[in-house]
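Prompt: For my understanding, could you write out one protein's sequence and backbone structure tokens?
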Amino acid sequence: MSILDFDLARMGVVYLHLVACCVAIGTVFMSDLKMVRSLLAGDSETVDGDHLMSLQTTVGRCLLALWITGALLIGMDISVKGWSVLANPKIQAKIAVVALLTLNGFALHGVVLPALRRVNCILHLNMSMRQFAALTGAISGVSWLYAAALGVGRPLNWKYSLVEIMAAYPAFIVMGFMGMTALMAWCSHRRNSMAMVAGER
């Protein structure tokens, strides 16, 4: 394969890689936005079962595509530059984030989404499951965005250590978890207050 053919092939794989990531980010973001709007509006049902099934399928396929195209890109780079490619901290960070995203996906799709389908509203979950849903949701949202940032962050190559690249990752997860927990607490308190007022009438 000539250099030109190799570059074109790699560009095609990169394109598919980015499309998979963008589709997943858009799907997750719109789903989260829909749920937040329902919570703020005080809807009794903040989750649609059919939507959750579609979300699970779409994100699962995007994650699989991300692994396949990512592995192809690494393999292509190794064939040209050798195994030293794997010593790049940015590559290591991206593999770590996608691996955590995959493990979190199993928890999200195997535990949280089935629980949400049963109750139709995240506020109807018991407290421990509600916290777990907030945590897995925060990890999912942050991980997709972080993986995308690493994917386009060419200046990060060989410039920063793995610890430096990953430093903001747990901070963003904590911020997302705390934000979602605070939102659910406020919405739950508001619903209880409105129910008490309605009962007094």
